[in-house]
Amino acid sequence: MKKILLIFSLAISTLILAQQKPTLFLIGDSTMANKDNPDKNPEHGWGQVLPQFFTTGIEIQNHAMNGRSSKSFRTEGRWDKVEKQLKKGDFVIIQFGHNDQKFKDSTKFTNPYTQYRANLERYVNETRAKGAIPILMTSITRRNFNENGVLIDTHKEYPLVVRMVADDMKVAFVDMQLLTEQLEISYGPEKSKLLHLHFKAGENAYYDKDKADDTHLSRLGAESVAKLAVKSLKTMKTGLEKYIK
């Protein structure tokens, strides 16, 4: 009788596990993060609007957080919260770089070719160890046009290192730097302000002073960037594509 109950219990557990939805975890910085007061706040992270492009067959957890680097995301215990939940069939999008550049902040800065690379490799390895699938992404570009209307890169070596890790470790990869550069250029020096946060004092109730932020995204910018990410993800054979609308 005990043996029958044990077999029955194992069968139920297996069935429950089989019925569990996969989860897509997002880890990164403010350009991806959820923002407070989304109904009033003009700023949106692209990960914040991502769920609208996916079916209900997958859960999305956005763990991206303002100001975090590949280093501080781990040292603050944020990765630990994700890693503990990871199961076979889950996905993890990894996108850092903006804050790894902050050489005046020892809690965030990483040398691109040593610490940054090692951090990315560790996220990939620990994700795979849980049976989940890592997806590496380069940082989205900043709106940084010069006087001649040329978009100037601000990320330096960091996106290159992401490409190198993706290639060396055979990781699914989306070049968001390239895609968002193309987006910014298509809008041009002036209209691209609509993708970001450009307001005169009093123009938007959320800001009482002039706002000119070329790093973070408006809702239009967030949705545009999310669409680019989803379009690329849909072409990959990771298994994630079957949950994309």
From TrEMBL:
Record's keyword annotation contains Hydrolase: yes
Organism classification: Bacteria, Pseudomonadati, Bacteroidota, Flavobacteriia, Flavobacteriales
Domain SGNH hydrolase-type esterase: 26-222
Source species: Chryseobacterium zhengzhouense
Signal peptide: 1-18
Similarity-based family: Belongs to the 'GDSL' lipolytic enzyme family.
UniProt keyword list: Hydrolase, Signal
Protein name (record): Rhamnogalacturonan acetylesterase
